C-alpha cells in the first residue's frame, strides 16, 4: 500500500569548500497517513513524529537498496516505537502504548519510554538484495539522551564515528527536521567540493551548527524549507540537489503475516484457534485486516517455507 505525496519533501545540500552536508525534511501527507489509523496521546505523536523525520533524514544517505528500521523498546507507558524508511523514502510507523496508561501532554522522552532506565534504541539496516547467508545489520544501544535528536546524535557518533547534529519537531499536522553532518576528509567528496584545510572545514562545521542552533521548534514547524535555508545559511555558499519526496508505504502481505504466525509455533497457533475459532490480525502500520481459519493455519505448517519477520508482530483478535 503506497500513497504518493509530492508535497512531502527532503532537500539535500552541501557546503562548498567543506566536507559538511545537510538535509531538510518536511513530511505532512505521509504523517497524516500514519496518524489517521491511531489515536495517540499528544506527547507520543511528538516523539513518533520526530522519529519519522529522523528516519527520513538518515535513509536519504543509505548506500544500498534496502531499508532502515528504527525502534525504541521502552519500559514506560510507551512500550514500542517503530519507524521504517527505505532508500526510496517510502515510510511507515507505529507506536505501542500500554492499555490504560495515563500520558501527560507534556511528557518527556524519558517519562514516556525510559523511566526505569532499561529502554533500548535499535537501528536495523536491511538490504533487499542480500548475499547468501547475509543478515541485516543491527545496532542495539541504551536509550542515551533526553530527546530524540540527542539519542540519534549519540548513536551516530558511537556507531558511525560521524559528527551529526539534528533538529526535530512534530505536531498533529507535520513532521520536520534538519540534519547537519561533518564528513571524514577521505569520504570521496573531493569531486563535489574544493580542497580546503582541516581548520577551514572545522570552522565551517562549527558555524553551520551555531546557525542551525538558533532555530526554534516553533520556527521549524511553521516555516517552509526554502525560507529556512535562506534564513539560516544566506551568507554561506551551498549547493542544492534535486529534492526527493517521502511517501507512505506499507509492505504487509498475507504471506508475511503467515510467517509471523509460523514464528509463534504450531502449538500456540492451534491453542489460539481452539479458543477463537479463527485468527483475525490487523497490521499495526496500515490497519489492513487478515483472517486465518483452521485450514489456512494447517497449510502454514506444511513444507519448509522460509520465515520472514514482521516488525512489529500484529495483534491477534477474535
UniProtKB/TrEMBL annotation:
InterPro entries with a match to the protein in the record: Heat_shock_Hsp33, Heat_shock_Hsp33_C, Heat_shock_Hsp33_N, Hsp33_helix_hairpin_bin_dom_sf
Name of protein: 33 kDa chaperonin
Keywords: Chaperone, Cytoplasm, Disulfide bond, Redox-active center, Zinc
Principal location class: cytoplasm
PANTHER family attached to this UniProt entry: 33 KDA CHAPERONIN
Name of a matching Pfam family: HSP33
Modification after translation (UniProt): Under oxidizing conditions two disulfide bonds are formed involving the reactive cysteines. Under reducing conditions zinc is bound to the reactive cysteines and the protein is inactive.
